[in-house]
Amino acid sequence: MEYPNSYLARFVARPNRFIATCRLHDELIQVHVKNTGRNKEILQPEVPVALVKSDNPQRKTQYDLVAAKVGTRWINIDSQAPNQVAFDSIKTGLIKLPGIATRDILSLKREVTFEDARFDIFGSTAKQPFFVELKGVTLANGALAAFPDAPTSRASKHVATLIRAQAAGYQTYLCFIIQMSGISKVTIYQQRDPALYAAILAAQKAGVHLLAYGCAVTPATLNATYPVTIDLAQPFTEVN
Question: Which of 54, 97, 120, 152 lies in the 20 to 30 Å Cα band around 134?
Answer without folding.
Answer: 54
